[in-house]
Write a structure and sequence with these properties.
The protein has 207 residues and is mainly alpha-helical. It contains seven helices and no strands. The longest helix is centred in the middle third of the chain and has 33 residues.
Length: 207
């Protein structure tokens, strides 16, 4: 599996591993900010607040893990401290824009309703992806006897996915049909992101 091999290579180099953790932290932080942006001015559900808080905590947790490699690595989210910075910054934003475009055509929604629909479908797609990404990463960490762990994130992301499915069931009877289209959009963007990271990681000289 190309992704698995890529992670093995990343984990073997301290600085690259720190950049990977920082990249994941950036993504979690961006996700949390997008969830908050989608909130209704007054009708904010407890579950939406919980998701935003937990994504922010994941961003903090991943950032803190960098200290186990080197406390001086990746203190910010500047481009040189991320892997494939351009693709990383574009990934979630592009998914949000393309998902909104699709949902606007699929449903007759007001501006506030569209924001909520985007929160549901985009978060669902990201949780599906997280359910694939973090277990593979943890497997590599375990095999490399790394001090870094993401098991706590895996458990919370599994819970998030279940909560998103419950909310989508309430939103629309045929949500799965639309979710498949959003997942297809996400897969294309995810592949572009991984390819950009692969290209960058392949240039790293390992001792």
């Amino acid at each position: 599996m190309e992704f698995h091999r890529m992670l093995e290579k990343i984990v073997q180099d301290g600085k690259t591993h720190a950049q990977w953790l920082n990249t994941l932290s950036f993504m979690e932080n961006a996700g949390a900010r997008k969830i908050s942006k989608c909130e209704h001015p007054v009708s904010v559900s407890l579950i939406q607040l919980k998701h935003a808080a937990e994504e922010h905590r994941h961003a903090y947790y991943l950032k803190k893990q960098i200290g186990k490699i080197d406390a001086e690595y990746c203190l910010t989210y500047e481009d040189h401290e991320l892997l494939a910075a351009i693709a990383t910054r574009q990934y979630l934003h592009s998914l949000d824009v393309k998902a909104c475009r699709y949902l606007k055509n699929a449903f007759q929604l007001t501006k506030e309703e569209l924001k909520y629909a985007a929160y549901l479908f985009v978060t669902y797609a990201i949780e599906v992806r997280a359910d694939e990404l973090y277990p593979v990463y943890q497997d590599v960490l375990t095999k490399e006897s790394s001090r870094i762990m993401v098991k706590s994130i895996i458990l919370e992301e599994e819970g998030h996915l279940e909560e998103m499915i419950n909310q989508l069931n309430e939103f629309s009877e045929d949500w799965k049909l639309h979710a498949e289209n959003i997942l297809a959009i996400e897969k294309e963007l995810h592949d572009q992101w991984i390819n950009a990271i692969l290209e960058e990681v392949s240039k790293v000289n390992y001792a």
